[in-house]
Amino acid sequence: MQLWSWESLLLLGLVSIVTLLLFVKVLFGGAGGLQGRKAMKLRLPPGPRPLPIIGNMHQFGDKPHISLWNLAKMYGPIMHLKLGSQRLVVVSSADAAREFVKVQDKVWAGRPLPPGADIFKENIENIVWAPYGNYWRHLRKICTIELFTSKRLESFRPLRTQEFSQMVRAIWDDSQQGKVVDLAVKISHLSFNNMTRMLLNKRFFGVNMSGQEEAFRFKELNTRFLSLAGVIIIGDYVPWLKWITVVTDFNKYMKKVKADVDDMLQEFLEAKKNGKLCMNNELQNNDSTTPATAANKNQNQPDDFVDILLRQPTEDGTGHLADSSIKAVIQDMIVAGTDTSSNVVEWGISELIRHPEAEKKLQEELDRVIGKERIVTEADIPNLPYLNAVVKETFRLHPQTPINLPHKSIEDTTLGGFDFPVNTILLLNIYAIQRDPKWWERPEEFDPERFIKNPEINVTGSHFQLIPFGSGRRQCPGMPLGVLFVQMGLARLMHSFQFSLPATASA
Ligand code: HEM
């Protein structure tokens, strides 16, 4: 099935706009309608002039982070735009970001509805899209005190070690057989396995795995679902153009993807409840890093996330978390936590290949601290400053959400001398912030040394010039896991292999 791009929807929308433009102009008297009069009283930030009906939608382009960055160079770090009738504030500097998500953290902790929410007409149960309120707070609390504690993450350490060893082994085996190794696929499967083992105690990809087809289907469905989250649906912003998604069958497509993902998650949940989802022992027995017997495997198996979620109460304490909420959380973790993490490792490797002096330096550090006789462990990470610098520099140049997930104001507010009515959408241009020459010398260059000189700058959300996980109440709850995955991914790969460009390729 073809995925509809927002451009094609926009094109269809424009056709109808042309025919209706005249009518609307007469009806609302140009900019003098109620919206217009209200806007005149508000002190709004500068920004490009919106067109009637579509607002600034045409200025987003196919790389909105770049288009918005270019606009910010003209209009400043706090910029006002419109998507249809929806107000947006686009923030492109670290100082302004601090004001919005630290000083006014709570005011901007809302989320707009996800794309196409109107098509589904269901309560939103995902953490990612849940409105700011009791339900979202309850799920975040479960994340903080149950799922992402250091103790819990530590309990999954042997499992992560196994998965990393399996990846290294698979790359080695393929290369020994003269096969072309698709590193991106290997890292992506590793990330998926890592996550599904933590979530469901289920491993999808790898040698002798029976469920490859199921795995590809699940992963493909999730990828489709993720791509839908980034689509701009014209009817969400121009309500009288909702019919476009009906005539183009786009709403049917969205419903089908959502239903397929839901069916699959329901299957996993049922299997889990009936004790039918279980790791096979083949991995354990193949792995040289963990002493293995069938008996100690079951004994050592930590509770997975679904085990924990099944024990959680509802937010009002009257029962257990509904299946629909548990499925939404599983989906959040897979969609938000797998490709994001593996993409950063892939970018890190590609930057190191293009900068052989940095690759050499990292390998010398690994050889000096770990040596050739043992593998890198998570306990080694604090002793690897150059690795940490490479990781931060990769997060800086390659943020996985170049424009942060949208936030929304939950009340009227004033900031920097500007007025923002309730329900204004906030977009942080992380890409622009992390390349701002005010903070970064030669910002386009991959240069881990900048973090050797300033080791105190980190990604945890208190240095606003580096916020790949966002900051404030809505900050990524999976950050500790994401960072660990990238650190270990780069360390294990760089400790095990020498990467270089083929003689015919250029950096
Ligand atoms: C390198 C890896 C990752 C990156 C770069 C990343 C980045 C982000 C960013 C930028 C946000 C939006 C923050 C905001 O709205 O201000 C976010 C939200 C979120 N992330 Fe991550 N993330 C990563 C890994 C993970 C992992 C491993 C998980 C879970 C297992 C996860 C789960 C979530 C969830 C549930 C949210 C929504 C939070 C909310 O709305 O309250 N992420 N992530």
Automatic annotation (TrEMBL):
Query: Looking at the record, which segments are called Disordered?
Result: 281-300
UniProtKB keywords: Heme, Iron, Metal-binding, Monooxygenase, Oxidoreductase
Q: Which InterPro entries match?
A: Cyt_P450, Cyt_P450_CS, Cyt_P450_E_grp-I, Cyt_P450_sf
Residue spans crossing the bilayer: none
Enumerate the Pfam families for this protein: p450
Q: What family is reported?
A: Belongs to the cytochrome P450 family.
PANTHER family linked? CYTOCHROME P450 98A9, CYTOCHROME P450 FAMILY 1 SUBFAMILY A POLYPEPTIDE 1
Q: Give the protein name, as stated in the record.
A: Cytochrome P450
